[in-house]
Design brief:
The chain is an alpha+beta fold. Helix content is 23%, strand content 18%. The protein has four helices and six strands; from the N terminus they run E-E-E-E-E-H-H-E-H-H. The longest helix is centred in the last third of the chain and has 10 residues. The termini are far apart.
């Protein structure tokens, strides 16, 4: 997966892209996050579904596995749609990039007002 420069975090994943590396597919949504089951739905309703945010590096992102094998994807699918997972993981990023992400407002923008689990 190629990266693009980002003023806040140094580099991020490109938006709305599908790429392959060694028989593994990586798909990102309009915010540059790894796709989750709710990204695949035509009807983006269900505003009352709580959001669960996944932060981290390559493990969270799911480096080396297909979209439907990444931990956040499996979590959302396993919840039966009770929760929507948001995968903010980016390979190689650490605590300082995660802090910049939290302070940037991108999470709130991506969630579009959804209630977040563990955050008031």
């Amino acid at each position: 997966m190629p990266y693009v420069p980002d003023e806040t975090r140094g580099y991020v994943l490109p938006k709305n892209q599908r790429s392959a590396e060694e028989d593994v597919f990586y798909t990102t949504n309009r915010f540059g996050m790894r796709s989750a089951p709710h990204d695949l739905k035509v009807d983006q309703g269900a505003p009352d579904v709580p959001a669960v945010i996944f932060l981290g590096c390559s493990f969270t992102f799911g480096l080396g596995v297909d979209d439907d094998e990444a931990l956040p994807f499996l979590f959302e699918r396993g919840s039966g749609g009770q929760y929507w997972a948001y995968n903010f993981g980016v390979p190689g990023q650490g605590a300082h990039e995660t802090l910049a992400l939290l302070e940037s407002g991108l999470i709130d923008q991506a969630l579009g007002g959804k209630k977040q689990i563990g955050r008031a």
